[in-house]
Specification:
The complex is a heterodimer of chains A (206) and B (394).
Chain A lengths: L1 E6 L2 H12 L5 H4 L6 E3 L4 E6 L4 H6 L5 E5 H7 L4 E17 L12 E4 L2 H10 L5 E4 L6 H4 L5 E6 L3 H5 L3 E15 L1 H6 L1 H11 L6
Parallel strand pairs in A: 1-3, 1-4, 6-7, 6-8
Antiparallel strand pairs in A: 2-3, 4-9, 5-8, 5-9
Chain B lengths: L17 H18 L3 E2 L5 E3 L16 E3 L5 E4 L4 H10 L6 E10 L11 E10 L4 H18 L5 E6 L2 H7 L5 H12 L3 H8 L8 H6 L4 E3 H7 L7 H17 L8 E3 L12 E6 L8 E5 L14 E7 H7 L10 E5 L4 H10 L3 E3 L5 H10 L3 E5 L4 E4 L6 E2 L1
Helix pairs in contact in B: 1-10, 4-9, 5-6
The chains are: A alpha/beta (206), B alpha+beta (394).
Amino acid sequence: MIRIALTKGRVEEQVIPRLESIGFDMIPLRDKKRKLVIPINEELEIILVKGSDVSTYVMNGVADMGIVGSDVLVEENSPVCELGNITRGQCRFILASTQDYTINRTGRQRIGTKYPRVTQEYFWRRGQDVEIIKINGSVELAPLIGLADAIVDITETGTTLRENHLVIYDELGSIDTRLVANPVALKQKRKAMLTLADGLCIDSYI
Amino acid sequence: MKGSIRLPSGLQDVTNGLAERKERICRYVGKYLYQRGYRKVTTPMLEYKEVFTPFNLSSHQRFYECHGRDQRTLVLRSDMTIPIARAIGTNAWEGSQRLYYVGDVLINEEEHQGKVNQITQAGIELIGYSSLKAELECMSIIANWSERLLPTPICIELGHAKVGDAILEALHLDKEDEAVLLGALYSKKIPDYMNCIQQYQSSALYPLLAKWPRLFGTVQEIQEELSTIILPVKAQHLLDELYDFAQLIQPMFIEPIRIDMSTKAPQTYYTGLTCKGYVEGMASYLVSGGRYDQLLGYFQEESMPAMGIAFDIDCLSQLVKDEVVKPSITYVYAEPKQLEEAYELIGNNEGYSLSLGDTLEEAKAQANREKAELIIVATDRERRLTGVDSEVIE
């Protein structure tokens, strides 16, 4: 039996049809109500967790595999095995700010973000030292009210940014939904886990 | 002040029978290895940091650091083999050695991840032995301990420290590209790895590169993956060595021997065959080891061939099949004037122990709590109370 830690919400909705397409009856997950542990059949069990917790469940071995956005993996620098992408590029990291912002302005900039590591690496590559302000929600607010000069965030359609009169100045990379695995579980359940990876991933390595 | 005292993240007090179980396993492995001709070596918990510096220990072996009076940086050991190599080199031990150790390593893991930072390891180091007999000796010990201690069969996975280099040598990459490719492969970041190898699509090695992350499993699974692929000569030679060794040791184990060509060697100082062992239901390795023929050369004039393995005793303690049987204790209570008589009684009877209760009531309460017998040494007689609130036995 394989236990998968699945990110609740949008990722969960993306993954259900993919699991159905490879033969799993996902009605138990569709009708889950408030349950967090959902047995699908004798081969598969789903546990629903927050994206930022997927790696913790997988690396501690209580889940064999996980499904999580690559934004979370990049930010956590997680040691889980990343077997492939289930969806690719539906969201992207962006640098955004108000219309009067200049990325190359002199002086140390203040950047608001939920992703300090991604932000730090981006500005290091540009040769700029910036002050990062960690914000956990409504990141778009930060440049509007003067908390930060700009933000690094993720966006799917850009609607929220436009509605708040924010402009995208750069794209830092696309974000994928990724299938991850515990390294030892991958050894123990090689055949079942690779079969699942081949079925679920759009770019599995066969 | 009291409220703010706590253990650092990743550390724990060992109680509730686990301490006894760990001790019992350590005693077993110590006695077993001593009788097999091994001699114990104990190195200090603290070493100068430069002892470890050349070996670029992985992020999973980050140090706890502090400073000595000479202001040099000291670290708590996060590896047992390097200090033993330092001990051999700096103390000019001569000749081949069969050593064993039991001790703790401390790894400064990231906080709040559920990681365990202090691990007890027991292992052997075979110093000065270059033939395959050293590898066989290690496998024989793994097989013995697994059979004796584990409830389920162990899976052994073999690898070779040089297999990555042997494959990439044929691709003629510069060092930087090689590091990026191997980094993505070894950490199994497959999307990154697939991006890395796109530029080699026209190479004859591309089919191998595309299969490389899957080159782990039983001999049969590896052979199936490689059925249409030609390996570079050097890599094929190493794989043949692994096939031969797997065949040689298979009779020692129930589970089929596995081979892994897609994972980094467990330590940077390994130079030859490596091994790991795991059991079903445990998401970490129970044992790992390998050949390290160059390590001694960092600490003495000439290097010496060597091979070692280490068991994770904490993992083993969670898996062992025998439960510790709590010994039956009989407490002896006496007033100060009768202490001499009490100690005589204790000395003559196995399992007797002095009750440290200040009063008879406290002694009775302790005996009741622990479901132990209580003997009261009185001036004119010895009285025995059995179990909880039991009758006086004259």
